[in-house]
Write a structure and sequence with these properties.
The protein has 144 residues and is mainly β. 8% of the residues lie in helices and 29% in strands. The strands form two sheets. Strands 2-3-7-5 form a four-stranded antiparallel beta sheet, with no helix packed on it. Strands 1-4-6 form a three-stranded antiparallel beta sheet, with no helix packed on it. The termini are far apart.
Length: 144
């Protein structure tokens, strides 16, 4: 019996950024034999998102966190429009429907869904409640 493993490393889309994925790339690949989706996700995060150590007089609380099996925060950043709003990207990692809650650790007025490029969405969902389809990626704007 044999097993075939295929891996797509770059996809180079032409929209919205025609220069995406061009140039030199260094890629590190790891294998975890027999891993399920939860273990593979945890190992991927361990390899790609090294922990930051912050020293100070007290514990630093996270800006955002999620509760819910399989829901992962993949990015937290300031909005590209310079508004001071915070953009959070979450995804479902286990290949099943997931429900959870986004907790925000700073004062804010609202949380609403936006597009991947941070544009407003008609009929966007608002609030911190999350309901994701298998492997769905969602981008949220936390309005300050």
């Amino acid at each position: 019996m044999t097993t075939t493993v295929r891996l797509s490393l770059l996809r180079a889309p032409r929209f919205p950024d025609p220069d995406t994925d061009h140039g030199h790339h260094e890629i590190e690949v790891g294998f975890v034999i027999g891993a399920d989706a939860a273990i593979a996700t945890a190992e991927g995060i361990r390899i790609n998102a090294l922990p930051s150590v912050v020293r100070g007089a007290r514990e630093v609380e996270p800006l955002v966190s999620v509760q819910g099996d399989g829901i992962v925060v993949s990015a937290v950043k300031l909005a590209d429009d310079g508004s001071g709003d915070v953009i959070v990207r979450v995804y479902e990692a286990l290949g099943r429907r997931a429900a959870g809650e986004l907790s925000v650790g700073f004062e804010h007025r609202e949380v609403r869904e936006v597009s991947l490029i941070e544009d407003d969405i008609d009929d966007a969902r608002t609030g911190g409640e999350l309901r994701l389809r298998p492997f769905e990626v969602r981008t949220l704007r936390i309005v300050r």
